[in-house]
UniProtKB/TrEMBL annotation:
It is found in: Endomembrane system. It holds the Pfam family PMT. Residues 128-277 form the ArnT-like N-terminal domain. The chain crosses the membrane at residues 20-41, 138-155, 161-183, 228-247, 259-278, 332-354, 375-396, 408-430, 442-464, 484-503. It comes from Nocardioides turkmenicus. It comes from the Bacteria. This is Phospholipid carrier-dependent glycosyltransferase. GO terms for molecular function: mannosyltransferase activity.
């Protein structure tokens, strides 16, 4: 049995790839998200996040010197070359805050900062290093937003409106856009993990090819080489690939093929970056050095792990804060987010019920075949399992005395965006008005416009706060640039939400019943 037989082409009525129209819309919405991050990347003063950005930038500076730092390495204290880092470190009260505590992370993001160190030296302008590393993070956030839309397309290829809406939902938390404008590795790490998930789903939907497997292995390597959660992504995507292949071909040959392909998908990242995690175990006693860091910074346990995991108020507040910046807390904006979420969850339940009812009617009319999970099912299971592991780790971090930050939830945004988009469109599908696909696209455009408008409004609050604090002074020689970037981003957002209404969709056959259900039902290797 060939690879093509193991995972044959996609269902005949599902497009192999997103249309040019959809790709343009996703790119425009991603550009809007990146524009907000880039504004902060080129304006915010380093001292505002000196405790985080100083060690992160110093990691890249150490790599530029040919040294791989440890969590005991001091930050760069060269007043001539890196005045912002030096000033920030000197303001810290304790010596432990003048160390590169971020050295527990793999080096990929910081390797991307090495050219900016060299360019800053060549131009004799220390601002170049700061703005450059921030720019990498900001652009990666835009890539993440774009990739979430593509993942949504792989899960629901017959419903391009879901991909558009998932992209808008990912772009809407201005809190995350602001966080991505600093020297942090989160957006690069989540973008790499999302690319791994996307590559896996494309293999499951369209079949195994050499190029797709190479993309999956390379993406997995990038994810694992940026942050520890990327290792979890690699393991889960590899397991999803192997199990689904085995379910498709339950012979000894199928077992050998599934094992071999899974070994490639997980082994390449392991061989490429596994040494770093072994190094952490040797130096600190665990792969992420979390125990050593908690001890160093004298974290005091606040609750047990179980108490954190079962604290709805904590998780609900953390979730709402993705969209509600600190100056707007208490204004009632969280009720908007809660309402959207509850409506989406209601739509998800209604869609599941409708799908089960339709499946019951079809049972007995179709000759039974071996059960093979749909691509949508596999994709959602991978995203759910990955999010669950991340939440468990965050609960452990919180119970150990760690301070939660909204950017830590960036990892689960692909799942959140897809679930919300599918749930909201399920409500739209239940409304008997017009042709179902056009109805979905109009609703997706309207909801996206609302979400992006809300993002722009909350972002403006952060900008006004920045101006009030007098922090709007990074790279004064490029002062017009951030404003131009914001204007371009706003134009991209307006064009992105209007384009589906002005540019008609390509012809695509939809289910004759007129009901889309919760998710499409194409299976790995073809229709169910």
């Amino acid at each position: 049995m060939s690879h093509a037989a193991v995972l044959a082409s996609e269902s005949t009525d599902a497009p192999a790839r997103p249309s040019a129209r959809l790709v343009v819309v996703l790119a425009l919405l991603a550009a809007f998200a990146a524009s907000m991050s880039l504004y902060f990347a080129t304006t915010q003063a380093l001292s505002y996040h000196a405790r985080d950005e100083g060690p992160n930038a110093s990691y890249a500076i150490s790599l530029h010197r040919g040294e791989l730092p440890t969590i005991d390495s001091p930050v760069a204290l060269d007043r001539e070359r890196f005045p912002q880092i030096t000033r920030g470190a000197n303001r810290e009260e304790f010596d432990r805050h003048r160390l590169i505590w971020t050295a527990n992370h793999p080096p990929l993001y910081y390797l991307l900062g090495v050219p900016w160190v060299a360019l800053a030296d060549a131009l004799d302008n220390p601002h170049v290093l700061i703005a450059g590393m921030r720019g990498v993070s900001a652009l990666a956030y835009g890539v993440l937003v774009f990739l979430v839309g593509l993942i949504a397309f792989e899960v629901t290829p017959r419903r391009p409106a879901a991909a558009m809406l998932a992209t808008a939902i990912t772009a809407s938390p201005a809190v995350l856009a602001v966080a991505a404008g600093f020297i942090m590795n989160d957006s690069v790490a989540v973008a790499a993990s999302s690319l791994t998930v996307l590559a896996t789903l494309r293999i499951l939907r369209l079949g195994v090819t050499r190029n797709r497997l190479i993309v999956m292995a390379v993406a997995g390597t990038l994810a694992a080489a940026t942050k520890a959660p990327g290792v979890i992504t690699v393991i889960m995507c590899g397991a999803a690939l192997g199990v689904t292949l085995l379910l498709r071909d339950r012979t000894w040959k199928g077992l050998r093929r599934a094992t071999w392909l899974t070994a490639i998908a997980t082994g390449v990242p392991g061989l490429a970056i596994g040494w770093f995690y072994v190094r952490n175990i040797v130096l600190y006693g665990d792969p992420t050095a979390s125990s050593a860091l908690l001890e160093r910074y004298q974290r005091v346990q606040v609750d047990t792990w179980f108490e954190v995991m079962t604290a709805p108020r904590f998780w609900h507040g953390w979730y709402d804060h993705l969209w509600v910046p600190l100056p707007l807390r208490g204004t009632g904006l969280h009720w908007v987010i809660d309402t959207i979420t509850l409506v989406a969850l209601l739509g998800l339940v209604l869609g599941v019920v409708a799908r089960l009812r339709d499946h019951g009617r079809e049972q007995g009319l179709v000759v039974s075949a071996p059960r093979v999970p749909s691509v949508a099912t596999v994709g959602l299971l991978v995203l759910i399992a990955h999010a669950f592991v991340i939440v468990v780790n965050l609960a452990q971090f919180r119970s150990g005395g760690g301070n939660p930050h909204e950017r830590y939830l960036m990892t689960i945004m692909p799942l959140v965006a897809i679930v919300l988009s599918v749930g909201l469109l399920a409500i739209v599908d239940a409304v008997p008005w017009g042709e179902i696909r056009r109805r979905e696209e109009i609703a997706a455009a309207v909801i996206s416009a609302f979400l992006l408008g809300m993002a722009a409004a909350t972002f403006s609050v952060s900008v006004r706060t920045q101006l009030h604090l007098g922090l709007d002074r990074m790279l004064p020689e490029l002062r017009p640039l951030p404003d131009v970037v914001l204007v371009v981003g706003a134009i991209c957002a307006m064009v992105g939400v209007a384009l589906p209404l002005l540019w008609g969709p390509p012809a695509l056959k939809r289910p004759s019943s007129g009901r889309s259900g919760v998710i499409t039902t194409e299976t790995v290797g073809g229709a169910a």
